[in-house]
Queue: 2 jobs
Job 1
Amino acid sequence: MKGGQVDARGGIQAGITSFLKEALSKGCFDAVMIPTRVPAGDSFAWILTDNEDLVAGASPLPPVMPVQGARALSSITKKGKAPAKIAAVMRPCEVRAAVELGKLKQVDLANVTLLSMDCPGVLELSTYLSDPTKGDSEFSRLLDKWDAESLRPVCRSCTHFSATASDIHLGLLGAQAERLYVMPLTPEGSRVTDALNISADQELDSWQAKVDEVRQKREEQRRKSEVELKERVEGTEKLLATLSTCIGCRNCMRVCPICYCRQCFFDSDALEGEVAAHLSRAERKGSLRFPLDTLLFHLGRMSHMSLSCVECGTCEDACPMSIPVGQIFSHVARRTQELFKYDPGKNRYEPLPLVTYEQDELHDFEQPYVKTYSGKGAADA
Amino acid sequence: MAESFDPKILYVMCGWCGTGGAETASAYGMYYPENVRIFRVNCTGALSTVHMLRPLLEGADGLVISGCHPGDCHYDDGNFMARRKVALVKTILDSLGLDSDRLWFRYVAHGEARRFVDTAAEFTDHIKSKGPNPLATRSDT
Amino acid sequence: MPKTLTVNRGASDAVRALLRSLIEGGKVEGVFTLARVNNKGVGYALIRDPEKIEQAEPFYPWMPSSGGKQLSRLVSLSRRPRPLAVVLRPCELRAFVELVKLEQCRRDKLVLISSTCGGVYPVETLSDGNPDDRVPRYWNGLKAGEGQPDARDSCRACKHFIPYNADLTVALVGCGDLDEKCTFFVNSEAGQACLEGQGGVWGQSAVETEATEKLAAARDAERERQREELHLGSLGIEGLVGIFGKCVGCRSCREVCPICYCTLCDFDSAKYENEPAWFARELNSRKGVRVPPATLLFQMGRMVHMSVSCVGCGMCSDVCPVNIPVATLFSSVGEANQKLFDYVPGKDESQKPPFVKAELNELENLTV
């Protein structure tokens, strides 16, 4: 990977904001969408701003992810391309979700410069909120050490923590003290680095080595946690025990960047029925659980969004019942994505698996026909 | 499994080919098990994943889907899309340790009466050997 | 004073036995009550099998969702009513009555059973450790007529803990002999019909006792304290931004709210999706704009939509992933609005909700 370097004397966050400030003042873009601390100081929210002071005071890499960046970007560009050139400063999983939403026509990337950075992961939202000061110091330690114990479970085993489908990637790993790597990944990215006179022709070997090292650790962690998760949720009994505390609040769906539907299928009238229908369901089961269709909702949501799931873990953060939704969904998503050899958010031009097909594929899922069936129930038996 | 187990089977058929197979079978007076309920859709490609999941969670012991043979789809590619969706649903079920073998996908053409009755009978026997769907009677789904 | 029937059984057992006899006797087709899910969780259930009545936990001290909301989905307006017995907490029952008045469901053929309520624990505590460990402590508190210090904020501040509109009321608060005895208060003919044929001692007394009055006074004080703690009187825009700054826009407060019945919320509809040009205009008039926008608009808009019917059930605070005290704020605003129209949600079945029917001569001091 080739790139250049910029100054980050005031720390990583300040390095990023001063890079943005300069780009903004040189007219590389007209506004920046970036996380910033809320007035009460206890959390972070996204702002769209063209004010250099607000950019300077923003937190490009906050310790938590209260709102998935792709959702924020979608609220701006859902109805058409951005009114002016916007730089969206996001974590890799947010960039990937934005690319997926682009394919789903919920984000228009035409006037957007995607800017990502190496992401150590984030803390659990509820843990952070119980003591923001402690969370802040823990996160600055994480930015330095890149270990994983205090991160959310999905972040601990995330392997997409670095350069992705963004236009510019900022490398934090392996950089010298008080420096940041800048990698233009697309012509759009090169336009920005050229305007800022950053020569991006350096081979970033130390960054690459460090990224590979972290990725290896994360993969190891992934294998470990996968085994633990299977132990916890696999099979009818365990899965239903895990979902038995689900209260049907739909939080997981509402905060999911991929679940963009204005009206979710599972909240529509599609699944409604007569009292008599409910009574007959209750008759069959002896007792019918309310809210209805908990398992159907989760499996159905998987079938709707798992191919685009970027494993950002926002669902798990938002679950009031501490169900490991993020881990379950990411476990399933890895398998469904593997099925179609699809890596969400990697390539803006690769079509979504369910809008395309190949003639010669998936033959394992076709039930083979034995010439004439002669079992018990056969026609001539 | 006890012989008395009478599985509830939903057979989703494409209105162009699969249903035609069933019609041809009836024209020849061929037999297929009575517990198979046929549900006609305009194209298997139009069947949503939730409609594959719902019977499997809510009462059916098994679900078969039959569309046109590759290349025969009235809408060009509906059966290929259906195959992708079936693969998706089965993978989801598999990855959570749920039974994906209660869902079959097999092509049946308009003239293939034999293939239709064979599929109905074979699947019924297959489900009989598996026993009732445990999810159908659970009260915690 | 209502008639009473006292049976020699613990309260939960007595209610289970009653429900069972109602199903077995064919008086109802099913029972809608809180019940165990998979021996771990708890949720509402429509029970038809008398054997499964064992799983019913009518007074389990958690509220995983508002029973009023769940019931309204079962008996919604377009459907033919069927005889069902229903066990709800007072706030859930009030919510249900509001939904009936808002024409979302109907109460025909339902037998509504409720109890005096000691409050519930926060829903997230259902998933830490074994919730059953808290249950004995809860019942001891009930016997002594005291609330739990770790109950939800909304419950500790609730003054409507004696049910309105129940056909049968089970006395729990301040009943020292809860483990051996259970008293049903009969409030209607339907309630009377349910108890026909049940063994026990008939009598007559009032639900309100010294214990309930004491609890009501304690809760009034707690409510004042909570509102003062939030400085609700002097919030202003800064205060509101302070409280709702961390809102993640998940809308779960609305999703679980029993009064918010719309299939598609106004604030999720296309009219609140902004054109890109809107953002450009905003950037011209202020330094920066929060995205997604309109956090306060949603919160205050929802207040406008539902606060006159807010029953203070506290579900919104319970599910908020960022612990915003939504319920304290909403119930306080709701109470102010309700006072304006002399309206207590879920109390009088014949009184129309304020925004369903306007009076000719009212609110005269509002016109300038």
Note: The beta strands of chain B are 9-14, 36-41, 62-66, 103-105.
Job 2
Amino acid sequence: MAKAEVLHALHQHPFTYDMKETWKRKLAAIARLHTYAPDSLLLREGRAADAFFLIIDGLVAIETFVPERGPLRLQTISSGEVIGWSWALPPYRWEFDARALRETEALVLDALQLRKLVDNDFALAACIFSRLLAVVARRLRAARLQLLDLYAPPAGTRRA
Amino acid sequence: MTAEVTTVPGLSLFVPRTFQVTSTRRETRDTYTLRIRPLEGSSFSFQPGQFNMLYAFGIGEVPISISGVRPRTYDLEHTVRAVGCVTRALVRLRKGAPIGVRGPFGRGWPLEEIRGRDVLFLAGGIGLAALRAPLQYMLAQRANYGQIVLLYGARSPADLLYRTELERWRQRSGLHVFITVDRVDAYWRGHVGVVTDLLPLAERSLDLKRAIVLMCGPEVMMRVAARMLEVHGVTPERIYLSLERNMKCAVGFCGHCQLGPAFICRDGPVFAFPEVQPLLEVREL
């Protein structure tokens, strides 16, 4: 029953819905559904990157902790998106925190198993990593735009 | 849209008419909404998306979008960010103070042509001011439009314009409002990131492959947004944007706001995206 729900979630999620059925079944075998309470951490900076998250419903903040300032929120990830690519890159450790801002339901894929899957199936690896690259590119573009501080008061020019 | 303001025949386009400030509302640390009405006169029509030249007597004149009409009193509203000597003088005006007005100028949003369609409003920062009047117009004629979604990006929660209205719009049936900010305080529980990251949320309420997009914000934001909209299936001819350049005369004479063959003040500020897409890619313009 639980695996049927996982498979259903993989059929619905934008990251996986159009993958081959055999791949979805392989992913379903290493995934579980989990609901995170508001304010709970999905992952924590420095710890082993042991999961890949497909957010089904909810809102998650990517944060970093700054001494004397507390957690700083950098970006939010909402339903239909994914969290985490550190599971795919040595040293397999999270670089930021991820905190549920409201009740959040996610598909959690076991990273160790996922790495084995992609090591043994290059076609699946290409499919997952090309999709992940699109996510990374989108997040990088967003981060660059945020750095530009586009909505700041204009400076350096004569203004009326 | 009509406000109870007069057009005086024969008055030169270059001579400001005297209005009176009826109230000011502080929106953020540096941004205020001025409500004004004429000292004399009857009615004044404008298209949502047009702008007025507001004159702080003895100091100078600036182009400001007409951000709406106050219900019941029909006072004209302009949202002004204090960034220079004229705008600082404007936001210091208090109830009863005189203010010079030339306008309305320019081409507004194509609200009649897009009747019956789903509409996505995409606003960045102070750009929401230019989208408020068409939003007011569509909400007043709600049955004439399909689904309406507002995506709004701001610098921080403290920089959000029209907070009370945003909450009212959120609760209003048939209008979906999604807000994101670049920087947050500890109390913010909403989205953080760029406004285009909200597009998947908009897609739950309307079909982007058919919807019309009206957008206003920093030019870089609009260029990026146009590319992201394309990824989501929005074709360029369904995108309209409002541009801001250095407008001075407001009637296409002085050339300060020239963008290639177009004068923003006269041919815009609202353009269909294909009209300006190649021009926005020319760095010298």
Note: The mean pLDDT of chain B is 89.
